[in-house]
Design a protein that fits this description.
Order of helices and strands: EEEEEEEEEEE
Largest sheet: 7 strands, mixed
Radius of gyration: 14 Å
Helix content: under 10%
Distance between the termini: 40 Å
Strand content: over 45%
Number of strands: 11
Length: about 120
């Protein structure tokens, strides 16, 4: 089994910054991609940033140039630096990871979610 534990959400004023962290632990041979999704009330989760094991990154247009994803591969940790936050960024943010296990199988895992609220 693999666990993803997130931290760093909270309340911030418009224009402010927050940094989310997510640590993966458990039966991990190799962490493949790690990323962040967010979910608005009544909507499906949407991918906003992702980083592959080789370092390639993806950003959704809505967060491009404001959010930065990074990884510490030695610690199986992914970060999301969120700057210039807007009220429309208010959502629950989820960490996601694709993991390769020791026996070669792969699985996709989710963090518990952390609330980010941006006040105007």
């Amino acid at each position: 089994q693999v666990q993803l534990v997130e931290s760093g959400g909270g309340l911030v004023q418009s224009g402010g910054s927050l940094r989310l962290s997510c640590v993966a632990s458990g039966e991990i041979f190799r962490v493949l991609s790690m990323g962040w999704y967010r979910q608005f009330p009544g909507k499906e989760r949407e991918l906003i940033a992702q980083m592959a094991s080789g370092g390639n990154t993806y950003y959704d247009d809505s967060v491009m140039d404001r959010f930065t994803i990074s990884r510490d591969n030695a610690e199986n940790t992914v970060y999301l630096q969120m700057d210039t936050l807007k009220p429309e960024d208010t959502a629950v943010y989820y960490c996601n990871a694709e993991i390769q296990h020791v026996l070669g199988t792969r699985g996709t895992y989710w963090g518990q979610g952390t609330q980010v609220t941006v006040s105007s």
